[in-house]
Automatic annotation (TrEMBL):
<dbReference type="InterPro" id="IPR050109">
    <property type="entry name" value="HTH-type_TetR-like_transc_reg"/>
</dbReference>
<protein>
    <submittedName>
        <fullName>TetR/AcrR family transcriptional regulator</fullName>
    </submittedName>
</protein>
<dbReference type="InterPro" id="IPR001647">
    <property type="entry name" value="HTH_TetR"/>
</dbReference>
<dbReference type="Pfam" id="PF00440">
    <property type="entry name" value="TetR_N"/>
</dbReference>
<feature type="domain" description="HTH tetR-type">
    <location>
        <begin position="2"/>
        <end position="62"/>
    </location>
</feature>
<dbReference type="InterPro" id="IPR036271">
    <property type="entry name" value="Tet_transcr_reg_TetR-rel_C_sf"/>
</dbReference>
<keyword id="KW-0238">DNA-binding</keyword>
<feature type="DNA-binding region" description="H-T-H motif">
    <location>
        <begin position="25"/>
        <end position="44"/>
    </location>
</feature>
<dbReference type="InterPro" id="IPR009057">
    <property type="entry name" value="Homeodomain-like_sf"/>
</dbReference>
């Protein structure tokens, strides 16, 4: 059963995606969640606290999928799977967050989380570079090369629904690894 807190957090993300941060009034959020506006304040105290909780909830799902293992394709596919799932459901929120981030401090939690996640992904890539599974290149640039096409696809989906689709995670990772993954026969070139 979904808790009232989760209903409010989900409603918050949906309302922000549909109406922007300015249009995300506590009344609209409460109506979307199917609760009284007073319930929102009882559970979160303020609109800002609710927005922060909703955005942190959204970003925390990624963190459990960024753990270095022995296989680069498995590790990256796990991350891309979660990332594309979020982009499929939250691409409108992504557009709003990028557009309004400079004007609304509420989005700073989302941007800080994205920066931290990008660094964790870069660390994961560096782990596989050190294990000689990926060619050497700046890890942050490699991380951006992995997620950049996904973000761009989500932006296009927002503007032109149906024009493109997000790739299957396995296919996206396979394309990313083409030219980056080191094979046993060319690892000695790095020695």
């Amino acid at each position: 059963m979904v808790t009232v807190e989760q209903q409010l957090k989900d409603a918050t993300l949906n309302v922000i995606a549909a109406h922007g941060l300015k249009g995300a009034t506590t009344r609209r959020i409460a109506e979307t969640a199917g609760v009284a506006e007073l319930t929102l304040f009882r559970h979160f105290g303020s609109k800002a606290s609710l927005i922060e909780a909703a955005l942190l909830d959204l970003t925390s799902a990624f963190d459990e999928h960024i753990h270095p293992g022995d296989d680069v394709a498995t590790d990256l596919t796990a991350f891309v799977s979660v990332y594309t799932k979020a982009l499929r459901t939250q691409h409108r929120l992504l557009v709003v967050a990028f557009a309004e981030a400079q004007r609304h401090a509420e989005f700073s939690v989302l941007l800080r989380a994205q920066t931290a996640r990008l660094q964790k992904l870069a660390d994961l890539i560096e782990h596989h570079q050190q294990a000689r599974q990926l060619r050497p290149e700046p890890p942050r640039e490699a991380a951006l090369a992995l997620i950049g096409p996904l973000v761009m696809t989500a932006l296009v989906l927002n503007a032109q629904p149906g024009f493109v689709t997000l790739p299957a995670p396995h296919d996206h990772v396979r394309a990313f690894l083409a030219g980056r993954q080191l094979r046993p026969d060319n690892q000695q070139e790095l020695s």
